[in-house]
Design a protein that fits this description.
22 strands; about 500 residues; globular; 6-stranded antiparallel β-sheet
Length: about 500
């Protein structure tokens, strides 16, 4: 390819990425407000695979955010109804997307006469399903950010980061800012994104006893940012890296000198194969902090690399769901047009079709997702546990390919799940790239193979055992069909 043609290709790719991403603060702040089911308090979102797709959302999840300040001496309470869904949680963050506190659905005691449908054995279809949560203007007193199933029950969530309150200034006065998110995973079939109950309604009691609701409350807490003249979606720098930084990481062979790409993390000139950073057998990496995530491209021994072990994911930005843990591997069509993952599926409650009683399992939820690279932080397709068939031993087969390369047996009825491999690839120049991610949520403390139990890079296989997928590539559908995994066999 000529230099002129390559330059044109780079320009086109950059324009395409810019069109699809909140690449500037102005664009992000303008586009992330007023989505489906949002209101004057829950003003940001909905976020998800079809709504403001950013920060690696699960395709089965939707979340909304509120940014607000409270008058001195006021008390804020959220009143809602438990959704008809697999999971719901409230979580608070600092401005860089690091977790402050997380409150899972089952922890929240129901209002008098109501049922919490997320507790084991509870009636999931109970009509009386109300709760109240108080938003406390204090630091997290010590509740863990990577919770297991069975954490203490409470109806309070804390908003002040360890480093102290987040503040913003309108030119005349400094205000204390709180950031709160609510997530809903896998609404029951036939319900909406909120699980059929809408979002919790805030109630504000002022220091003088006056109670505010609705628009009056939103005006008092400035949740729509009217007083300050801007919205409170955090700087996209908390979520994304720049195109220049990503290019330096992905194509280090183009560099003539080391380049700082993130907080002192350095990409150094070196030769890499066209399919970089993927390797044929996969390289599983648990989620720690953001630096470690980017070291997939820069190398763990790059100048300025983090000490081992790095900090866990809740403190690493990207507004993580603190009830999840992740492992990822890069894949590439250079090795084959069909990538197949096989492993043991953790047990989880079944909820999609509205099971009457809340079940139990080794985890609350498992999903498998294809993502673009950190330049975009987009998810492209997922399958969650109820969409993944297994054999009698609990082993699943997940086939990842483009639609045109999908094997005929890559369907549920043949005992296989299929996940689409997007033609966008990394969301930049490498359209053959893919980032495959496994997600575990709220594991039982008796489950000894949860991703949450990984402690240092390299221990993924030891901890997960059979629950860590094995990766095999096939040249195409015909090659897969001739393999021992390519037949059609019913699931258990």
């Amino acid at each position: 390819m000529s230099a002129r043609a390559r330059a044109a290709l780079v320009a086109v790719a950059a324009l395409a990425a810019a069109a699809l991403l909140p690449a500037s603060a102005a664009a992000a702040r303008g586009e992330m407000v007023g989505g489906r089911f949002s209101d004057c308090f829950w003003n940001y979102g909905a976020f998800g695979v079809h709504d403001f797709n950013i920060a690696y959302p699960d395709a089965g999840a939707t979340y909304w955010a509120a940014g607000f300040r409270r008058p001195p001496g006021s008390k804020l309470t959220l009143r809602g109804r438990y959704p008809h869904s697999r999971y719901m949680a409230m979580q608070t963050y600092d401005i860089l997307g690091r977790g402050v506190d997380g409150l899972a659905d089952y922890q929240i005691d129901p209002s008098k006469g109501s049922t919490n449908p997320f507790r084991k054995g509870a009636n999931r279809n109970s009509h009386k399903r109300s709760y109240r949560v108080r938003v406390v203007d204090a630091k997290n007193p010590g509740y863990p950010l990577e919770a297991y199933d069975g954490e203490p029950r409470r109806n309070k969530i804390y908003v002040i980061p360890d480093a102290g309150p987040i503040t913003e200034n309108d030119g005349s006065q400094t205000y204390e800012l709180n950031l709160l998110m609510i997530r809903v995973y896998v609404p029951d079939k036939g319900t909406d994104l909120t699980g059929g109950v809408g979002l919790p309604k805030p109630r504000l009691e002022l220091a003088d006893g006056t109670v505010l609701k609705g628009q009056a409350l939103c005006d008092a807490v400035d949740s729509e940012s009217k007083a300050l003249g801007h919205t409170r979606v955090p700087d996209p720098g908390a979520l994304l890296i720049s195109e220049d930084s990503y290019r330096a990481m992905r194509y280090p062979n183009e560099l003539s000198a080391p380049v700082d790409v993130f907080a002192g993390l350095t990409s150094v000139p070196r030769e890499v194969p066209p399919w970089f950073p993927a390797v044929r057998k996969g390289q599983w990496r648990a989620q720690y902090d953001r630096r470690y995530l980017l070291q997939l491209w820069t190398g763990d021994n790059a100048p300025g690399a983090n000490p081992v072990p790095p900090t866990r994911g809740a403190s690493g930005g990207f507004f993580p769901n603190v009830h999840n843990a992740y492992v990822r591997t890069a894949i590439h069509r250079h090795f084959g047009k069909v990538a197949v993952f096989r492993g043991k599926l953790p047990t989880a409650p079944a909820t999609l079709h509205g099971d009457e009683r809340m079940g139990s399992g080794q985890v609350r939820y498992t999903s498998f997702c294809m993502n673009e690279a950190p330049l975009t932080t987009r998810v492209t397709d997922c399958a969650f546990d109820e969409q993944v068939p297994t054999n009698r031993k609990g082993i699943y087969t997940i086939v990842v390919s483009r639609p045109g390369d999908r094997p005929a047996t890559a369907r549920f009825q043949c005992g296989k799940a299929w996940i689409r491999w997007s033609k966008r690839g990394d969301g930049y120049l490498d359209h053959d790239f893919g980032w495959f991610q496994v997600r575990n949520m709220l594991p039982s403390r008796s489950f000894r193979h949860a991703i949450q139990l990984t402690e240092t890079p390299g221990d993924e296989q030891q901890v997960l055992g059979r629950y860590l997928p094995r990766l095999t590539y096939y040249d195409g559908p015909a090659d897969f069909a001739r393999s021992s995994a390519g037949g059609c066999s019913s699931s258990k």
